[in-house]
Amino acid sequence: MRPFLIAPSILSADFARLGDDVKAVLDAGTDVVHFDVMDNHYVPNLTIGPMVCQALRNYGITADIDVHLMVKPVDRIVPDFAKAGASIITFHPEASEHVDRTLQLIKECGCKAGLVFNPATPLHYLDHVMDKLDVILLMSVNPGFGGQSFIPSTLDKLRQVRARIDASGFDIRLEVDGGVKVDNIAEIAAAGADMFVAGSAIFSQPDYKTVVDEMRAELAK
Ligand code: DX5
Ligand code: ZN
């Protein structure tokens, strides 16, 4: 398995001083900026769009930006995020009429592509597209809000997806999003995840580096 990546969810960052806060969380030793896009339609919350992604690039953020689209429809916002500096774009398959087409669109725009599965979304969406995936993201909460509790059935789902990735031979990251904390990250890694989104666990603490170091220590066990 490749090195573990920690992806702070900026949903829990301070939006009034977002550039500084994103820089601080990267300086604390995190790897990828997880950028949650909510449309008040697919999910019951409203967040940020391509302009904010571009603003982070203009501010000087060079880390990969992992855009998690919780929007419906999906396709028309994809080119805008690619132009705004997204590195990875993931979407929920049930929000797209044509999953294969959306994956191709993301790739044509020059980004890495991934599918996101809600806790109750079946894995059959993987059946014919493994060759087009760079990332599979399993939600361990229902999407829409930070600060929710990790849903334990995700562990078994992670093990299933890890087995599918390994059997496929493709180079696909297995990302988990929701309720990831210092005290459960080791168990989540043991189930097969190699990319960990954490929002409230990091941003709720005064010293981001302490939490990130604790997560790395757990991952090294
Ligand atoms: C939820 C988002 C998550 C969220 C995670 O819909 O996709 O990325 O910010 O927040 P925590 O880590 O607080 O559960
Ligand atoms: Zn997310």
TrEMBL record:
Q: According to the UniProt record, what class of enzyme is this?
A: isomerase
Query: Biological process (GO) annotations?
Result: pentose catabolic process; pentose-phosphate shunt
InterPro entries, alphabetized: Aldolase_TIM, Ribul_P_3_epim, Ribul_P_3_epim-like, RibuloseP-bd_barrel
**Does the keyword section mention Lyase?**
no
Pathway in which the depicted protein is active: Carbohydrate degradation
Write out the function statement from the record. Catalyzes the reversible epimerization of D-ribulose 5-phosphate to D-xylulose 5-phosphate.
Q: Which reaction does it catalyse?
A: D-ribulose 5-phosphate = D-xylulose 5-phosphate
Record-given protein name: Ribulose-phosphate 3-epimerase
Which source organism?
Answer: Shewanella morhuae
Location of the active site? 36, 177
Per the record, the similarity remark reads: Belongs to the ribulose-phosphate 3-epimerase family.
| Cofactor(s), names only, from the UniProt record | Mn(2+); Fe(2+); a divalent metal cation; Zn(2+)
GO terms assigned for molecular function: D-ribulose-phosphate 3-epimerase activity; metal ion binding
State which Enzyme Commission number(s) the record gives: 5.1.3.1
